[in-house]
Amino acid sequence: MLDTLYIDAVEQADALLKPKRVEVLRQLAEPRTCTQIGQVLGDTPQAVYYHVKRLQAHGLVSLVEEHRVRGIIEGVYQAVAKSFWVSPAIVGRLGDARTREAQLGLGFLLDLTESLQRDLARLASGPPTLPSFGIAGDIRLAPEDGAAFVSELQRAFGEVLTRYGGGEGHAFRLALACYPNLPPGEAE
């Protein structure tokens, strides 16, 4: 089972993004039959089978074993990944590109996030690679400290990029983002 399946085809997204299929897929975190899923969801095995076959046809579910039950061969299915990420590129950029001239803008962070998502999904779907790590933390800034903080962070980040940005060795991407930490539900 993959850790992450990055969905970048409209057909895959269409097969997945139906409420009932998402429920079925969640049940397939562990190998299960359509009968077992139907019992949990209150559906007939035939109704579940229809959704499982659609998911399987688009590479989201796989048949892991079969066994005979009362003269009928019953399949045992499992999701192909632990998580599924739908690429923003499925819809693509609508309208003008986000401005990149100011790294202080939300548009730059959105572009960075899309790029990180694509890169990380590609890494997760391949063979094990060089170690990766992340650093995250929360800070509090008084309004009068904002400009000094940004300046100091840009200087420190710039020094790291200058020191390790060229030369020989394994290539890594280094990203830094700072954004308001809204409590859950506040932005909705």
UniProtKB/TrEMBL annotation:
SUPFAM superfamilies: Winged helix' DNA-binding domain. Transmembrane segments: none annotated. InterPro entries: ArsR-like_HTH, WH-like_DNA-bd_sf, WH_DNA-bd_sf. This is Helix-turn-helix domain-containing protein. It comes from Solirubrobacter ginsenosidimutans.
